[in-house]
Amino acid sequence: MAYRKRKRPLPSSQRRDGATLNQDELEMLTVGTDSIEIDLKLMNGKLSFIVETDEGARIDEPYLAKLWKTHRAELMASAAPGLRPVGWWWYETEKGAHLERQPGLLSSCLWLLELGLITETEAGLAERGHPLLCGYISDPQNANPWKKKLKSPDELRAGTIHMDDELLISHLPLLQELAAWHRWRNRPSIAELYELETNIIHDVLRERSEATA
Description:
α9 runs antiparallel to α10 (188-212). Helices cover 54% and strands 4% of the residues. The protein is elongated, with a radius of gyration of 22 Å. β1 (50-53) and β2 (56-59) form a beta hairpin. The protein is built from 10 helices and 2 strands, in the order ααββαααααααα. By secondary structure, the protein is mainly α.
């Protein structure tokens, strides 16, 4: 969680006891925000979780942490399957250290699986809302938008031609996480497709490296 400092002075924050959440606090702990949104809101009023310093304004971390501890149960109960409030990521996991916003459904489910904190029941509900999680790839040209579009090894390799090494490498973590997800969800054939694509990328990277050696 971060907020860039502002040089122009701001009105003092309206301090609250935290017994209830106002709308800004609810949004901050549920979905998060970024520095631009905070600046825009400050132009229209005060934010209870912003304090002034000699160098400008900053997020009052202890106050937000107190709010999270006080209202954790209700915030967690309101989260959709596969999602957690951004406050949970901030204060209860190491992955939240660099997050400003709530992770999307795909990242959230894959990270929860990595942490061992998602049940099969929750996964079954969550994956209905994402084609990659439920084992389908979106195909806008098809009447069924979630019809599986299988690619042969040659097609997968051909798809790497116009991708540089950095882009190929950036795809690997997601492919590996999706393979793990589908193995856990007892879809070995889907997992094998992601593992095949992972192996092809490794092969292409190795061949390029050997060609330039």
